[in-house]
């Protein structure tokens, strides 16, 4: 390769993990390139994930809130939904961010190469561009940040009415009846959007509850607040057959019995798999686990010494903020700095209505590991701000290790739960106990105050400040 196609560091994939790694590497002085097969940076998160979904969820939440405040004295007429304008708002949100990334890449002199990368050797990539064009790029070190894609269920035929989250976010039309397969975060967020736009939703989930593993009190609140969205919720059930007809998609759902129903749109949100298969990893000795996730150590190094991997393609929490942190670690290690991924916890948020945010250990985790935990609940029915905002159904719950007294987990249900969970993350990372949190003065009246109050509940010193 000629001089200008050699980089100190090449990052494969321009998602949150990849661009964060590339920017950090460039900031430390490494000559850096990103190879991205799509036309824009930002990966799944900015283009077809976190950001467009949040744009639509914002609109959905406002539309439903407008209805709810009828009881508080303001009534609006029936909503008129302009799908084209909604798509324009969503797409504009995405474009603003992806354009910003291009500027940030240019400002740092990070070269963005458009194409699909594959390893030729442990120091060389082949990048296939449009048509038959291809180029070779040499690197000193490489970070694999190729992300993940939605599982395609074998039972579902190929048809425009059977989509993954990407198809659902394109918002082609509002279906009369929609089936959501998989009651994880993505499935529930999409169900929220389409239900707010007027679709009747059915939900099918292989496991015995929605948001498997999440605190039972939180899930109970979510289910009672969202019961109106769903005609059927089939738990312990899965789609056993599906056929496409001119009128829709006919699906058999098998659980305790078999139900056959017809839908205008079917969303498969049954998990995501890593994009590791087409990279030629076997050629350079990068090991993957049985599910295809690339194996890494805490410096994000793969089994090939000069190759790192980060983000969804290494598994664990498949979330953008985890990818970003891992990207920073890999870039710093590549630059010779003493970095490692040492985060104790990664927070999760379902940006539904209400939001649920959770982090750290759950009651079940602790029970399974034989530890002792005390939970401190603060129901929002005792929060002045929650009552004044129509959110008295909310809950803040903190979990403390009985032996050490330290906080080990937390869950929040209600508006802005995702914005508030960061405080619990900080408390866990810093090894705070209930007194640290309870004696920290939180502003009144706020929803965040419920965190301080939950800690005081734990200490048995809860004030009666409403
Ligand atoms: P990705 O974002 O998947 O990026 C990988 C990039 O690599 C892609 O752009 C891909 O085109 C490129 N690529 C792959 N292979 C090659 C190759 N061989 N050559 C060149 N380029 C390649 N996470 C959150 O934290 N919060 C949320 O609210 C949230 N909402 C989500 C909503 C939806 C609908 C979905 C699907 C996901 C959501 N996520 C959310 C998850 C989040 O999108 C991912 O965790 C995040 O994008 C992972 O980042 P990444 O950098 O690992 O990979």
UniProtKB/TrEMBL annotation:
Reaction(s) the record says it catalyses: N(6)-[(R)-dihydrolipoyl]-L-lysyl-[protein] + NAD(+) = N(6)-[(R)-lipoyl]-L-lysyl-[protein] + NADH + H(+)
Query: Which cofactor(s) are needed, names only?
Result: (R)-lipoate; FAD
Cofactor descriptive note: Binds 1 FAD per subunit.
Entry EC number(s): 1.8.1.4
Keyword set includes Disulfide bond? yes
Q: Which GO terms describe its molecular function?
A: dihydrolipoyl dehydrogenase (NADH) activity
Write the record's keywords in alphabetical order, separated by commas: Disulfide bond, FAD, Flavoprotein, Lipoyl, NAD, Oxidoreductase, Redox-active center
Q: What else is known?
A: The active site is a redox-active disulfide bond.
The entry sums up its family as follows: Belongs to the class-I pyridine nucleotide-disulfide oxidoreductase family.
| Record protein name field | Dihydrolipoyl dehydrogenase
Source organism per UniProt: Bradyrhizobium diversitatis
**Where the shown chain sits in the full protein?**
100 to 565 of 571
């Amino acid at each position: 390769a000629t001089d200008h196609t050699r980089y100190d560091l090449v990052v494969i994939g321009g998602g949150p993990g990849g661009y964060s790694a590339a920017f950090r590497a460039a900031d430390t002085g490494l000559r850096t390139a990103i190879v991205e097969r799509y036309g824009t940076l930002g990966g799944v998160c900015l283009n077809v994930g976190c950001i467009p979904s949040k744009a639509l969820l914002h609109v959905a939440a406002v539309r439903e809130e407008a209805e709810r405040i009828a009881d508080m004295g303001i009534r609006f007429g029936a909503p008129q939904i302009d799908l084209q304008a909604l798509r324009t708002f969503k797409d504009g949100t995405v474009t603003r961010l992806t354009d910003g990334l291009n500027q940030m890449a240019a400002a740092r002199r990070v070269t963005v190469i458009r194409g699909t990368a594959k390893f030729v050797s442990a120091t060389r990539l082949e990048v296939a561009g449009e048509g038959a064009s291809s180029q070779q790029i040499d690197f000193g070190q490489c970070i694999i940040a190729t992300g993940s894609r939605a599982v395609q269920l074998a039972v579902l035929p190929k048809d425009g009415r059977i989509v993954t989250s990407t198809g659902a976010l394109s918002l082609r039309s509002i279906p009369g009846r929609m089936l959501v397969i998989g009651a994880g975060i993505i499935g529930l967020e999409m169900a929220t959007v389409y239900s707010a736009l007027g679709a009747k939703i059915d939900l099918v989930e292989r496991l015995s509850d929605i948001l498997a593993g999440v605190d039972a009190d939180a899930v109970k609140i979510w289910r009672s607040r969202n019961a109106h969205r769903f005609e059927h919720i089939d738990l312990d059930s899965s789609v056993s057959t599906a056929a496409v007809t001119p009128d829709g998609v006919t699906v058999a759902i098998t659980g305790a019995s078999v139900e056959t129903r017809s839908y205008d749109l079917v969303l498969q949100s049954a998990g995501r798999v890593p994009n590791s298969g087409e990279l030629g990893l076997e050629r350079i000795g990068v090991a993957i686990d049985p599910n295809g996730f690339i194996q890494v150590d805490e410096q994000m190094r793969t089994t090939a010494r000069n190759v790192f991997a980060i983000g969804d393609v290494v598994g664990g929490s498949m979330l953008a903020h985890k990818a970003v942190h891992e990207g920073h670690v890999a870039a710093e290690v590549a630059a010779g700095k003493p970095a490692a991924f040492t985060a104790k916890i990664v927070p999760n948020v379902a940006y539904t209505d209400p939001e649920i945010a959770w982090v750290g250990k759950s009651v079940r985790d602790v029970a399974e590991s034989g530890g002792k935990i005390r939970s401190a609940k603060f129901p929002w029915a005792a929060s002045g701000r929650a009552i004044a905002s129509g959110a008295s159904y909310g809950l803040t719950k903190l979990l403390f290790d009985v032996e050490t007294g330290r906080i080990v987990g937390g869950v929040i249900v209600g508006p802005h739960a995702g914005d508030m969970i960061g405080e619990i993350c900080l408390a866990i990372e810093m090894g705070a106990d209930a007194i640290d949190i309870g004696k920290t003065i939180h502003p009144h009246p706020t929803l965040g105050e419920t965190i301080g109050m939950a800690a005081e509940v734990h200490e048995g010193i809860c004030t009666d400040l409403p």
